[in-house]
Specification:
The complex is a heterodimer of chains A (about 190) and B (about 475). The mean pLDDT of chain A is about 95. Chain A has a single domain, classed as Aconitase, domain 4, CATH 3.20.19.10. Chain A is about 30% helix and about 20% strand. In chain A, strands 4-3-2-1-5-6-7 form a 7-stranded mixed beta sheet. Chain A contains 8 helices and 7 strands. Chain B has about 475 residues and is α/β, with parallel strands linked by helices. In chain B, helix 12 packs across helix 14. In chain B, helix 6 links the parallel strand 9 and strand 10. Chain B has 2 domains: about 270 residues, Aconitase, domain 3 (2-Layer Sandwich), CATH 3.30.499.10; about 170 residues, Aconitase, domain 3 (2-Layer Sandwich). In chain B, about 30% of the residues lie in helices and about 15% in strands. Chain B has a 5-stranded parallel beta sheet with strand order 5-4-3-6-7. The mean pLDDT of chain B is about 95. The chains are: A alpha/beta (about 190), B alpha/beta (about 475). Bound molecules: iron/sulfur cluster. Iron/sulfur cluster binds next to loops of chain B. Chain B: It catalyses: citrate = D-threo-isocitrate; (2R,3S)-3-isopropylmalate = (2S)-2-isopropylmalate.
Chain lengths: ~190, ~475
Amino acid sequence: MEPVKKLTSSIAPLDRINVDTDQIIPKQFLKRIERTGFGQFLFYGWRFNEDGTPNEDFILNHPAYKNSEILAAGENFGCGSSREHAPWSLQDYGFKVIIAPSFADIFYNNCVKNGILAIRLEEADRVIQAGKEGKSAAVDLESQTVSCGGHTWHFDIDPYWKQMLLNGWDEISITFQYEDAIRKYEESHV
Amino acid sequence: MAKTIIEKVWNDHIVYEEENKPDLLYIDLHLIHEVTSPQAFEGLRLKGRKVRRPDLSFATMDHNVPTKNREVIKDPVSKQQMNTLADNCKEFGIPLAHMHHPDQGIVHVIGPELGLTQPGKTIVCGDSHTSTHGAFGALAFGIGTSEVEHVLSTQTLWQSKPKTMEIKVEGDLGFGVTAKDVILAIISKFGVDAGTGYVVEYTGDAIRKMSMEERMTVCNMSIEAGARAGLISPDETTAEFLKNRAYVPADQYEELKEKWLSYATEEGAVYDKTLTIHADEIEPFVTWGTNPSMGSGISAHVPTAEDYTQNSKKEELKQALAYMDLSEGMPITDIEIQHVFIGSCTNSRIGDLRAAAKVIEGKKVHENVTAIVVPGSFTVKMKAEEEGLDQVFKDAGFEWRESGCSMCLAMNDDIVPAGERCASTSNRNFEGRQGAGARTHLVSPAMAAAAAVTGKFTDVRKMNVYA
Ligand code: SF4
């Protein structure tokens, strides 16, 4: 996993609440057995017209957001299915940071495990607005801040996840260090 | 201090704990299916890792399987995904109920059916509806593929202690009101993110009186309220259901039963939050929008923008109704449907099929409607055929299929065409869930059957079937 530290980028504003993972990556694209190549299918139903041409009205198709690494959205982002294909597709498309007032639990975990920084920020609507106005945001994980349009906001993150992200650790290798504890548990319980 | 079942099961499974860190939890049962596992197995192979406890893992094929003719898998990518699961199970020694196996079925139907699901266990699966198993008093939750890989290699997960929530269903359910209506009413009342960050325990008279199948329907949709897990304290009903199941050793039953019942929440235990709903405010439910909270009682109307104060909610309503092609304020009973799907891990068990059969017995599917029944497992299918339910459905004009997820997510050939409407007993009405452009209305099996007969949403209580 690539370490996540800081970045500055334009903000793609997805001004919708309760965006579910069926929208982020529709089921017809879940059949691949690889982790890669999902970006082309991101928000497929919204991004493309029925005939496969890009839907010009959808915000991600706007040229201003072509290279955005930050996505800002409404509350309860990533609800529904546990499919990790959702963060894989966001990442493959080019997003490294997602800012929303709240996230669904499984989606949030899935982001962390893939080195995507999901930021719970009460002021997410102001970041969405800044995105609409073509402004950029600077995100710094070490200091836990989002700066944009002259404001700097602090965000909370579990210290454990923060360490994982900053260092790009592989969680399974860490857990292997607890082999004794796992074996002891198995001897007494299972 | 009195403890909730949530705390008891959690504490029982802590392998390692340290301040300012999630707990390392032991996982008793890992269920696996073909869609969310291939990348996890590939991860093991790439790093030369093994499956730590194949004996605590169990796999099935459900999401992609054909329900018409098992021999014909038209989509080569679906076929590859299923073959990959079979190869992975073989390579790593994991038991598999493949497409032709008598134990095959939707992963959340077969776990309980086989008795793999038991009170007090920690159960995970790369699938958000793993919450279903909570009906037995197991702490069961959905995980992503990275976590699947983590469980495969370590049989543990790092988890932060959740907050606890009680959802109390007080009083007695009215005539013709089912478990599905209860959970849809809960989600509609409290919202799709009410449970985020919590594990929910369902309590109250109405829950206690439910059968295990009904409890599974309720727990199944916990995730639709944002809760990763939802459970119900075990009681006699729970223990009775598990008697003589394949994975419950008969000679240890009494001993196990005592242990199971000991997990129940103790009198006076405190939750971080309690929500209450009265059974008598619940009527048969129909969703009209594009998430499971957007639903109304059958006698009500589609809401109007004035019903909401928040702008984001007004906007969401507008988007949902545009997608669903419905107008603000229209009566639910005016919505006409073209498809009926009875199936999915929410409502595909024998009790669900009986409830639907009772409504359609001696009647015909409306001429504008295509209706299918997809039993949740091979076992359910056999049982239904033994009881003659298949004949009742077929006589009415339903198609009788093989078991699988089918039209719940339309990953196989069972798809609702764009622009058409489906009365579905599944759990998600998201845009495109049953096919690109398809419109889904979530209902109970009895309400789906009523809609099949009349071609539109109809109050099943007025159909003279409960006499
Ligand atoms: S029936 Fe539907 S919700 Fe249940 S596991 Fe299958 S796809 Fe998921």
